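Researcher: I'm preparing a figure for a lab meeting and need a structural model of a single chain. I don't have an experimental structure, so a prediction will have to do for now. The sequence is pasted below. Please return the structure as tokens so I can convert it later.
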Amino acid sequence: MSTIEKKGALSQIERRMAEKGFLKYFFLRLRQFFDRAIAKVARRIISMKTKVEDNKIIFMHYSNKYQCNPAYICDELIRQNIDCDIVFATDKKTLETLPSPFPEKVRLVRRNSLEFFYEAASAKVWVDNAVCFPWEYVPKKKNQIYINTWHGSMGLKKIDPDKIVSKKWAKAAKIAGRITDYMISNSSFETEVYRTTYWPNEKVKILEYGHPRNDILFANAEEAKNIKKKVCEFYGIDENVKLILYAPTFRDERTVKCYDIDYTGVIEAAKERFGGEWMILNRYHFKVAKAINQAKEIRDNPNILPGDLYPDIQELMLASDIGITDYSSWICDFVLTGKPGFIYANDLSKYDSERGFYYPLDSTPFPIAQNNRRLTETIKSFDASDYDRKVREFLDARGCKEKGTASKQVVELIKKYICCDSQPA
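Model: Understood. Here is the structure written out token by token.
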């Protein structure tokens, strides 16, 4: 066979392989399309055929954990000893975790399983902190109540539809906007964000109760001391150690270059300005936490604690003496404690142009640093009286409604819709 003939034979083989690859991909996509269509029809049938149980409440959290507003509402239901059936949807990994991070009175169901669809279809009340229920949507019936607590708080980064990369998330958010009965807000600012994004319909009632997860930040001195003790026992550290909570947000492209904080420099600056011994609680977004915490310089540093292992960031806020983030809205919860908060963001211009902010970062009380040298300088030169003034101005400007009673108010709302009696504790 000549060289030309060999090349011709090879090109035919390559073309056939390419065709097979295309056909394989085509049939895979076709199968996925039919699978989704069948699943959608099945969920609709389940919704139609399943009777609503008037004392059942189902909760969902965007990362499948017992955290944030759903956990605090659930805790209040249990504290009041309300006679109701509490279901929490989670993932397989969490279901297999021992000991279980969920209270005994909570039934667990695997998210997006057949059992979950029946539980959702039969629950009188849905409680969500994102767009979890619309994600794999079981059609909501007219006699079901959907309460969305969200997970932001006078937040910095935009959630506008044109700023969202994930098309599936945006689609779920639009469904959420259509089926939500109540949104829980903590400020007039947050209410405006809801109304100008996914919940413009006046049929959606926005209740400015504050966020249930923030009730703990109004703890008295004794309660705060007990939480600090609990956190220190969890990590096996001395109660006199002061803590810095560093919890940056997630980047859509999953880059980790933005997380180059100088841990040693931050600790030394805190020692110089505030005195005492310091450690850092590293709490990265769950999508990147594992990869970052496995880095040798973090894993082997005795002054860095894996904050993502602790189940409740609100308790970490109460136990910490300083907070540092980039654009995560938890810092707008932390501000309620009055403790020093700082922004470290080495990609500020890029993030602002791509995602954007609801208001300039320099209108917040938090000193801003775009490099490590500036971060340590802002810590060393921290002015407590100026910060206190800016905190009051910030909360007033956002119309903050936090009072530390949100969990009780949401439970009172739920009690209006479920058939239950409060039992003696």
